[in-house]
Amino acid sequence: MPYDAIIAGAGPAGSACAYRLAAAGASVLLLDRATFPRDKPCGGGLTLRALDVVPVPIDAVVEDVVDVAELRLNYGTSVERGSGKPLAVMTQRIRLDALLVAEAVRAGAELRDGTKVQAVEAGDAGVVVTAGGERFAGRTLVGADGVNGVVGRALGLGGNQAVGVALEGNVPWTKLDRSRYGGRIVMELAVLPGGYGWVFPKGDHANVGVGGWEREGPHLRSHLVRVCREHGIGLEDVEGLRGYRLPLRSPRSAVARGRALLVGDAAGLVDPLSGDGMYEAFVSARLAAESVLDLLGGRAATLEDYGARLGRSLSAHLWASWGVKVALDRFPRTTFALATTGLVWGAIEKVVRGELPDVTAARGIARAPLKALAMLGRAAGNPGHAFREA
Prior knowledge:
The two termini are 38 Å apart. It contains twelve helices and 19 strands. It is of the alpha/beta class. The protein has a seven-stranded mixed β-sheet, with helices on both faces. A six-stranded mixed β-sheet has the order 8-2-1-12-19-18. A three-stranded antiparallel β-sheet has the order 3-7-4. Helix 1 (12-23) packs parallel to helix 3 (93-107), helix 1 runs parallel beside helix 7 and helix 7 (278-296) packs antiparallel against helix 8 (305-330).
C-alpha cells in the first residue's frame, strides 16, 4: 500500500508536517539523507509568533530567552529596544531538529534517516520516490529538502528571485562576557549589502555571523572579522565556522502542482530582511498538512490550493520585509531612524510576538512612519511588490 504522504527532508518544516499528518492518522514516510541528530548552520532563534505554530512543546531545547534587541547602524549609532516581554527563544538546530523528528516518530511517522532521495516521479494518481536505492509509493509528496532540493528541481517547483549567503560560528562564553549578551540579540545593520551582522546568545556560547546578498560571498569572511573585532572576539575563537545559502522566493513561483508541494527553504520561504525561515517553515508545514488532509479526505482533487493559502498567510509580510531590506541598503540612515522609533518598533514587536499578522495591519499613529518606510522601499525598487499583487 502507498503511504498517504512521503516527506523528503526532516528539518523543521518536514518534521512538523510529518507530525501533523501522523497525528491526524495519515501514514507518513519521512526521509532524510543525514543521520539524526545532526547539526545545521542557523542563527537558532524562534520568535514568539513562530512558537505559536510549532506543533509540539520545545521547552526542553530552549537555551536563552531574548527580550532586548540591540540595533546599531554601520558600527555607529546604537539603539536598544524591548518592552520587557519576550521576543524570541534561542536554541540549536542539532537539538531542535532531533526533538521535532522524535515527536513526528512518536506520532506515528516512519523515519528513514541516512537515506538520500535520488529521484521523484509524480502522476495524477500518486508519486514514486527513489531513495537509498529503494522505490516508495505515496499518495502525496512534500518537498522539505532545502534550497537545493531534489523535489523542486525534478518537478519544476520553487524558483528563487534572489539568494542570500551567510557565514556563522560559535564563540564559547569563556571568550565572551555572557552578562553583556545574554537575553538580547545584537544586530549590526548596514555593515554589508543586503544583510547584517549578529551576536545571538545560546546555552554555553554565542552565535556570531554575517549575511547578505549572494555577491557578498567572497567578502563574508572579512565582514565577519570586522563584526568580531567590534565585539572583542578573535576569529580564532570562533568555532565551527560554516557558510550557507538563503533562498528568497519569487512571488510568481509555483509551490504546488498535482500531488506535490514544497515547504520551508525548499519553497524559498526565508524572510528577506532577517534571513529567518523558522516561522515560515512552521506556517508552511501547517498549511501543507491541511492541504494533504483535504486531498486524502476527498475534499480536494489536488494540492494546488496550498499556494493560495500560503500567499494569504505570508504575502503582506514578505512585501513589507523586502521593502525595508532594500530601503536599508539604499537609504540606511533614514530607514534606521524610522524603523527604530518607538512607534514602528512597537508594531514590529507585535508582529514578532504574533499579536499582529504583519506591519500592514498596524493602526493609529504608527501608520504614518510605516507608510514612510513603505515609500522608501518603493523608491529603492522594492522587488517584493509583486507579493501584494499575487
